[in-house]
Amino acid sequence: MTETAATPEETAADLSVVTAAMLVIGDEILSGRIREKNAGHLAALMTAIGVDLKEVRIVSDDEEAIIEAVNALRARYTYVFTSGGIGPTHDDITADAVSKAFGLPCDHEPRAMQMLAAVYAERGLEFTDARKRMARMPEGAVHIDNPVSIAPGFMIGNVHVMAGVPAVFQAMLDTVVPTLRTGRKLMSRAVHCPHGEGTIGEPLAAVQDRFTDIAIGSYPKHDKGKFWTEIVLRGAEEARLDEATEAVRQMIAGLDG
Amino acid sequence: MTETAATPEETAADLSVVTAAMLVIGDEILSGRIREKNAGHLAALMTAIGVDLKEVRIVSDDEEAIIEAVNALRARYTYVFTSGGIGPTHDDITADAVSKAFGLPCDHEPRAMQMLAAVYAERGLEFTDARKRMARMPEGAVHIDNPVSIAPGFMIGNVHVMAGVPAVFQAMLDTVVPTLRTGRKLMSRAVHCPHGEGTIGEPLAAVQDRFTDIAIGSYPKHDKGKFWTEIVLRGAEEARLDEATEAVRQMIAGLDG
To answer: Which residues of A touch B60 (CB under 8 A)?
Structure first.
């Protein structure tokens, strides 16, 4: 007896799915010189607000690569978040590449120019052409405020363009999050399992078969020559999640016996 | 006077370019539960051996997403390295997805079956169907040895399928590296610059214009409220690299004065 039609609950859940992708832009990540630090932060935050992060791409400071990735991701997901390449130097080409991806002109945005001019005047520094680059954005873009260092990110369509420096990225993301449509929040439970995946593979698959509305993941751990597993269950309904968690615990107890 | 034709050196350099992409497979990374730890290691290693890592993608444990990414990346780059999804549990679907990407059947590979059977016999553990999953690979695949926990990865075409557990990923990668065609190694120089990118944007672009054979990147740093910059130069010819590095140092000295 297999159910093929979606129940009303499942239909409602599908309608409420909000997805996201991240695009990390920067040669320094791909060369291994700098460890990527923003994706993990974004991932945890998206999970917390019920947005399903589906994909992360890291590309180099290459216009074609950025354009292609932006267009692929914005067509597929509710939101796209980019990090990197919006500073004042010659290798900061994100604003131009994103503008081209949208087929929009990229110009110095008047309000950003004013904000930056004021900052540099206050600091007694010249507002050079290089610094003016940081005011460039596609026509019609909306600012993303930068409380750390003023130079704004921007939003165009469903794409949020943010800085790569982690302190600035996180500050920008904090200003963006309240504007997002968020999905149905999934709750999760983690169960420590002293056995390796080889031992639990079959019984865990049997539990998964019984709870098709709960996503069960198993994450192999390797510590001092010993394998163990963290089992994580995710679901939208607490009662069902507790029931499945209990089933996993019983499964482990059965193996211990 | 703009040169448009490639010099003999440039042509030779282009022929020797070896590229790579990485595909990270796993819900646990995209949910933010686990921080991705293999990409940085791969990136640094590829740079060291002269392979140009051009792209990293992270996708979920979703067959369609894996197939699409594998096919996009293997068509575009010399090598593809995957991590994750080759364990014994129901959410480990990398072997099947990669087989489908190549249009090949996925079966229990006899030598892998023997190796795993011997391991479990020695440990006095049953060689269950779940454990047998770890011997699955596409027809014609070549083993990638796993000195840590025996279950092999595999290579099919230009795609190297490896484990997600960092200790195992790194061990597998160490066995793969000597088999790779490596490119012309780029040397690099890093210059500490006490100024933010806004200050150096223009003069640095001028240096870049003079040294078109040297890739100059600038990486903004933010530390205790102060912005500074690390400038990294990369090139294949040491004399030119030294010349460009000296030009960057003089540029900074000019700003200090």
So the answer is: 54-55
- Kindly indicate whether the domain formed by A15-179 is annotated with CATH number 3.40.980.10: yes
What pLDDT digit, counting tens, does each position of A147-199 carry?
A: 888 999 999 999 999 999 999 999 999 889 989 988 777 788 999 999 988 88
Helix (H) or strand (E) segment spanning residue B201:
helix B197-210
Instruction: Scan for tokens 């480990």, then name that residue.
Output: B92
Find the closest chain B residue to A45 by CA distance. B32
**Residue among A46, A76, A7 nearest B64 (CA):** A76
Cβ separation A88–B197 shorter than 8 A: yes
Domain boundaries, chain B: 16-179, 187-256
Q: pLDDT at position B8, please?
A: 35
- The whole-number pLDDT of residue B256 equals 73
The Cα–Cα gap between B153 and B144 comes to: 5
pTM metric for this prediction: 0.81
A190 Cβ contact partners less than 8 Å away, ≥ 6 residues apart: A230, A231, A232, A233
- For the record, the structure tokens of B21 come out as 């992409």
* Chain B residues close to A216, C-beta within 8 Å: 90-91
pLDDT given at position A186: 73
For domain A187-256, give the CATH number: 3.30.310.50
The residue with tokens 């690099």 is B188
Distances (CA, A) of A156 to A52, A82, A121, A195, B25: 20, 12, 29, 48, 29
In CATH, which of 3.30.1340.30, 3.40.50.300, 3.40.980.10, 3.30.420.40 is domain B16-179? Answer: 3.40.980.10
Q: What are the residue ranges in chain A where pLDDT is below 70?
A: 1-16, 257
Q: Are B42 and A32 an interchain contact pair (Cβ–Cβ within 8 Å)? A: yes
